[in-house]
Amino acid sequence: SSSSSSLFVCLFVLVAAMDVDVVSTQVELKAMSDLFQRLMGSCQTKCIAQNYKDSNLTKGEAICLDRCVAKYLLVHEEVGKKMSMYQAPQPQ
Fold first, then answer.
1. Nearest by Cα to 39 from 61, 71, 63
2. How many CB atoms lie within 10 A of CB 91?
3. What's the Cα-to-Cα distance from 74 to each of 7, 8, 11, rounded to whole Å?
4. 35-84: per-residue pLDDT in tens?
């Protein structure tokens, strides 16, 4: 019957959209995790001495980390904007 086949098509489209949404969320989560790992590695190497004596950050280290993270995120945002400008429009 036409009604049941229409319902099947609608359900199929809905499930396919949900799968795409889950996959895109997983990809986004992996990208954010990768960004965090790279950011931490870079800023820690730059701002924190290898042979530290205190378990707390010094004021200089804290300021350096704050600036490093801010710059890293700013560059990440700018690169994302540039990449989205060059991304091909999706055919409809």
1. 71
2. 4
3. 46, 46, 41
4. 888 988 999 999 988 887 888 989 999 999 999 999 988 888 888 888 88
* Cβ(10)–Cβ(17) below 8 Å: no
User: Could you tell me the end-to-end alpha-carbon distance of the chain, in angstroms, rounded to an integer?
Assistant: 29
pTM, entire model? 0.61
Structure tokens at 15: 């499930």
| Amino acid identity for residue 92 in this structure | Q
32 — pLDDT class (breaks 50, 70, 90): confident
* Cβ contact 69:39 at 8 Å: yes
Q: Which amino acid is at 23?
A: V
Q: Which residue has the tokens 């049941």?
A: 4
